[in-house]
Amino acid sequence: MSLSLERKSGPGPPVSGMRLADAELGDLYPIGLECLYLDLRAPCDLYRRLQDGEMVFFARRGIPFDQEARDRLHELGVSELYIREDDVPRFFTFIRETLEKIVRDNSVSPQKKAEAVHVSCMETMRRAYADPRAVFLQQAHEVIAPTVDLIVHDDVATRALVQLTAYDHCTYVHSTNVGIFGIALARIMYGQESVAVMERLGAGFFLHDLGKCRIPVEILNKPGSLTPKERRLVNRHPRDGYEILRLEGFMTDEAEILTLQHHEREDGEGYPAGLTSRDIHPYARICRLVDIYEALTADRPYHKRRTTFEALKFMQEQILTDMDQELLRNFVLLFAKS
Predict the structure, then answer these.
(1) CA 244, CA 95: separation in Å to the nearest integer?
(2) What are phi and psi of 66, to 5 degrees?
(3) Strand 64-65 to 40-41 pairing
(4) Which 3 state secondary structure label does DSSP give 83?
(5) Could you give the residue range(s) of every CATH 1.10.3210.10 domain in the chain?
(6) Sign of the C-alpha dihedral, residues 73, 78, 80, 81?
(7) What's the pLDDT score for residue 3?
(8) pTM of the model as a whole
(9) Among 214, 152, 145, which Cα is nearest to 184's?
């Protein structure tokens, strides 16, 4: 895969390294390198961005993506490639089918399965939160299903998955982490539930913050205090998320509970409905607990991340009520086993 920047003369397909005008490219969608699984063929044409911002053709669809190719890109400081927007459905089909094969393959190690699940979830959540239309919510659900299956049936892979959670303030990263933690804790608390219920719970955990896609990023990342108007906008995101899921046809009982109740509090000071302890569903308590933990351990513009120990201690002493202490004790087990 030569990275020569010479322009190809005459008609025909572009060559690796060829600079391309915006008109030739159309809309491009970024993908993480880790989504191109080693020793598998690229599902579509790949492009990369040069340091000066120009786009070049990198590799043709079908080329084996090996460690040499990945190392070469890392040496160039490349962390993501690009695909054409009209190739996005093909790309997400590749992610889903590859993930299903990896999760079901007994010869693949739990660590490798966990890595594949984490990468796939991050990529699909990034797309769903950026553009929460039905087609992308469906793609998210198709990746969540094998994720739930792995967590429910493989303790070793679950422990590896917990270790892989990233410390980033992006909403899709936060939601990926909450999804992983939420399923893992729900499995401890409600492991007797059917796979179908666990899958619906998983989808609710991963998409609990979908309404944040309607909040301007400068408000989400504001380092200082929010104005009353900004706070009202932020506090609207549970209802906005509920409305998006309802309009796009992805509303379930579990999604309704998790989307609307994950910011409710025992004392009635939560939002959006000001529910008190007896009205908050146990599923929502799980979501709130893991949501708080993830927020405390992530780098945010308005605070530095805490360690796992610091976050759990703070939650036990300052935030959670007696009703949530059993949840916290079971949540700690995820880290005690790791």
Answers:
(1) 24
(2) -110, 180
(3) antiparallel
(4) strand
(5) 105-336
(6) negative
(7) 34
(8) 0.84
(9) 152
Per-residue buried b or exposed e for 298-322, using 16+ beta carbons within 10 Å of the residue's own CB: bebeeeeebeeeebbeebeeebbee
- Mean pLDDT for 298-326 is 86
Residues 255, 170: Cα–Cα separation, whole Å: 21
Q: Name the maximum alpha-carbon separation found in the chain.
A: 73
- Residue pLDDT, tens place only, 99-145: 999 999 999 999 999 999 999 999 999 999 999 999 999 999 999 99
Q: What pLDDT sits at residue 320?
A: 86
3-class DSSP state of 65: strand
pLDDT of 22 > 50? The answer is: no
Q: Rounded mean pLDDT of 211-227?
A: 90
For residues 289 and 313, the answer to whether their CB atoms sit within 8 Å is no
What confidence tens digit (pLDDT) does each residue in 153-190 have?
Answer: 999 999 999 888 866 668 888 999 999 999 999 999 98
Q: What is the CA radius of gyration of the chain?
A: 21
Judging by beta carbons within 10 Å of its beta carbon (0-12, 13-18, 19+), is residue 127 exposed, middle or buried? buried
Q: Which amino acid is at 272?
A: P
Which CATH code for domain 105-336?
1.10.3210.10
pLDDT tens-digit readout, 226-246: 999 999 999 999 999 999 999
Q: What residue spans of the chain are helical by DSSP H?
A: 22-25, 67-75, 88-104, 110-130, 134-153, 155-164, 171-190, 195-206, 217-220, 228-234, 237-247, 253-261, 282-297, 308-314, 325-336
